[in-house]
UniProtKB/TrEMBL annotation, chain A:
Its main location: membrane. PANTHER family: MEMBRANE COMPONENT OF ABC TRANSPORTER YHHJ-RELATED, TRANSPORT PERMEASE PROTEIN. Keywords: Antibiotic resistance, Cell membrane, Membrane, Transmembrane, Transmembrane helix, Transport. Residues 14-242 form the ABC transmembrane type-2 domain. Belongs to the ABC-2 integral membrane protein family. It is a multi-pass membrane protein. The chain crosses the membrane at residues 24-42, 54-74, 95-124, 130-154, 161-180, 217-239. Signal peptide: none annotated. It comes from Nocardioides szechwanensis. It holds the Pfam family ABC2_membrane. This is Transport permease protein. GO terms for molecular function: ABC-type transporter activity. GO terms for biological process: response to antibiotic.
From TrEMBL, chain B:
It comes from the Bacteria. Residues 6-228 form the ABC transporter domain. This is ABC-2 type transport system ATP-binding protein. GO terms for molecular function: ATP binding; ATP hydrolysis activity. InterPro entries: AAA+_ATPase, ABC_transporter-like_ATP-bd, ABC_transporter-like_CS, P-loop_NTPase.
Length: 244, 237
């Protein structure tokens, strides 16, 4: 890896995003709007927003980043720019980490906004530290990025890339504890839930709403971060300089 | 003594279950070499093998004394793929500055490359708003960054007007005169006369490898197109 090249990729991805106002709006504004919608839905139903809001703060950035990343990297494959880059002195990890850092920066902005709106305007009650909540959201978004980078290796078109969304993202949402607490699921599903990264992200968020102790949150964060690294490593392993 | 830049021996490539190149042997030296042949004959496959982005089934390809695709070659080869391979949502200079940073070359190289392909007046235009010919010149400019020792250009003159085509061929010769090897593919036979050396390709085989004049003389033809047809008829199907 070469920091100059990694940062070149990051800088380029960010300038492309800056040009693309619609995607930027989707990345930054949409999670805030969705949180507002949720708050409004449960406005007359007691403390439900406080219960599920934090989980959704983990889920929205994950979904959005997964989608944007898998489609953008696939576009890079199909346009021939990836082939050109890999014929240049570009390490595979330069490429992947460059993307991950760029989207990580966007994820950080997105999470600060979403957490700010939820806690500041919508009155989401959390007991733990707000900065820790933001950190969890950023790591979740990076998880979406890493998985998006990984699955783009298995798609040949942008259309196929989008189809990974129901296959990879939706099961994680169903099993993460948002709909049924993880310990009340049937054993098999509970075990599956235990090996899915989003479960740990949601656990961390939920923990922050009920307790101010940070120990368990850090434990969950480490698990999610390990999935991020594994996603990047698998992404690098599936990126081929030579293609058929 | 002039040493060969590219040496291909016994190269076999199977794509989509069908053999595209079988046991190809080839040596390419300095100067401008044209790779000509009909659509689908395997030109891009051969160029990709030389650049080192094609999965090959057997045989060896060495470039500048190193195995094709190996790390020391990656900043010594300029490669223009058949599709434009630039970022349509970035401007001409933004594209070039990005690739220059990847290659570790300075900003003066960007200006030089933009001038070389005659895009100075469009340097701040978004690549996606350029015409097809302008876009392929942006792609060519990227390949010129850092003065590579080998330029591999896959149909770089498609869709260009005659004046621009002439200018680009002059540029290829200037680059070759400065000591580089330039390998250009085309399926337009009338570009043949502009090459120092010609490789005529058909169905994955090289059916002629000589100067344009020698190829015409051997086939007793007045132009390369006639010579190509004569060679096709003479070669075993
Ligand atoms: N990605 C691919 N997968 C499978 N087969 C391929 C692929 N790309 C090309 N081929 C096949 O390999 C053969 C040679 O293709 P190649 O692109 O090298 O031809 P070409 O001489 O460059 O043609 P053109 O002048 O049209 O660019 C063709 O029969 C083509 O169908
Ligand atoms: Mg081709």
């Amino acid at each position: 890896m070469n920091p100059r090249i990694t940062m070149a990729v990051t800088g380029r991805v960010l300038s492309q995003l800056r040009r693309d106002h619609r995607t930027l709006a989707m990345l930054l504004v949409l999670p805030c709007l969705l949180m507002t919608l949720l708050w409004w839905m449960y406005n007359d139903s007691g403390p439900i927003f406080d219960r599920i809001g934090p989980a959704l703060l983990a889920i929205f950035p994950f979904i959005v980043m997964f989608l944007v990343t898998s489609v953008t990297t696939l576009r890079e494959r199909s346009s021939g720019t990836l082939e050109r880059l890999l014929a240049m002195p570009m390490g595979k990890l330069d490429f992947l980490v460059g993307y991950a850092v760029a989207f990580g920066v966007v994820a950080a902005l997105q999470s600060v906004l979403a957490v700010g709106v939820s806690v500041g305007l919508l009155g989401l009650e959390i007991v733990g530290h707000v900065w820790l909540l933001t950190l969890v959201a950023v790591v979740d978004a990076t998880l979406g990025t890493a998985l998006g980078l990984f699955v783009s290796a298995f798609a040949r078109t942008e259309f196929q890339a989008v189809q990974f969304m129901p296959a990879i993202v939706v099961p994680q949402i169903l099993l993460c504890g948002l709909l049924v607490p993880r310990d009340s699921m049937p054993d098999v599903l509970g075990a599956i839930s235990d090996v899915l990264p989003l479960s740990y992200a949601v656990d961390a968020m939920t923990h922050l709403t009920v307790s101010s102790s940070a120990g368990e949150v850090w434990g969950d964060l480490v698990v999610v971060a390990a999935f991020v690294l594994a996603g990047l490593a698998l992404g690098a392993a599936t990126l081929r300089r030579r293609t058929a | 003594m002039m040493k060969s830049t590219v040496e291909v021996s016994g190269l076999t490539v199977v794509r989509g279950g069908r053999p595209v190149l079988t046991g190809l042997d080839l040596v390419i030296g300095k100067g401008v070499t044209g790779l000509l042949g009909p659509s689908g004959c395997g030109k891009s496959t051969l160029l990709r093998s030389i650049v080192g982005v094609q999965r090959v089934d057997s045989g060896t390809v060495s470039v500048l004394g190193e195995p094709a695709g190996s790390a020391p070659l990656r900043d010594r080869i300029g490669y223009v793929t058949q599709d434009s391979s630039v970022y349509l949502d970035l401007s001409v200079t933004e594209n070039l500055r990005f690739f220059a940073r990847v290659l570790g070359v300075g900003a003066d190289e960007v200006d030089r490359a933009v001038e070389a392909v005659d895009l100075t007046s469009h340097r701040d235009a978004l690549a996606g708003n350029l015409s097809g010919g302008q876009l392929s010149r942006v792609s060519l400019a990227v390949a010129l960054l850092g003065k590579p020792d080998l330029l591999v250009l896959d149909e770089p003159t498609v869709g260009l007007d005659p004046v621009l085509r002439r200018d680009l061929w002059e540029l290829f010769h200037r680059i070759a005169d400065a000591g580089a090897t330039v390998l250009v593919s085309s399926h337009v036979m009338d570009e043949a006369e502009r090459c120092d050396r010609l490789l005529l390709m058909r169905e994955g085989r090289i059916i002629a490898d000589d100067t344009p004049a020698a190829i015409k003389a051997a086939a007793g033809a007045d132009d390369i197109e006639t010579a190509f047809l004569a060679l096709v008829e003479a070669s075993p199907a």
